[in-house]
Amino acid sequence: VEKPSDFDKRVSYCMLISRKAYEQKPRDMRNIFCVSLIIALLVAFKVLHTLLKQINEKKLLHERLMTQEEVMQSNYLLMAMKGRKDEKCKNVIQMSEGQSFVLVGIMVPMQDKTESEQDEVLLFAVDNIFAELMKGNKYYKIDDGRQLFYLFAVEEERTWREECLKKADYLNQIMKAWWKQGLYIAISRPEKDLARIRVQYSDIVEEFQDRKLLGEGGVTDISKKKRNLSTNQRIVEEIRRLIEERYEDSNLNVSVLAAELGKTPKHISEVFKEETGESILYAINYKRISKAKALMRTGQYKLAEIVEMTGYSNMNTF
Question: Is the pTM of the predicted complex or chain greater than 0.70?
Fold first, then answer.
């Protein structure tokens, strides 16, 4: 190839095209840009639509799982209230050390024995109003036919009770004004052990029966009523009190409890089993394990310390 001469370097070259072709070029570029932009937007829309669909599916799945969990909680608590147990569902109830459990029962007096659509509407209205009034308080709801139960886990029981009584009375006033008839509302005594929900339930049902006989609605604070206990129930109360006070003692057993109560081990074992549906040994171990779990969650103690603090004689037993 020959090297360009000085003359060639001074020459400028150009290409002649028609005006129509010159004007068409920017239009082509603009059309290509617009088409590219539309394709990009369509792709982005498709990706966004897919993401939103996945998010909605996850949300629906979460809601479905939450509903199933609530059903499991309600079923487990209903069985526990009526003296039956399903150990498989026990873990669905979250318990924390130091909390008191209080059961609130609400019954809507019905004129007819058979359930009607109006009954369902009333129960739905009562449930929604009560849920709104108690907003901010964690609770487990239990459906029992025409009766609604709510299990609360509270820290400051007295303060919570005062607030709950006021709101329950307000709910009763609303129903009186709207439905011309009051509700039966009862708030149980506080309990530290969830197994005692059976006693709370019995107290509330008994209160509802008394209210029916009187034929008047109202709010009852059962903690202010004197409990009429049978001989067997008093024995169970004493056993639970002793377990609560002395679970840290590794020597605590049925014989020790029997001696403390002046009864035979066989007698108190039979009474406790009949009244609670569980053995005394189970009640002792349940208390110790619950306390151990609470101490482990704090992360403040070594395992050996927890073993000693919860009444286990050695690490292997624990």
Answer: no
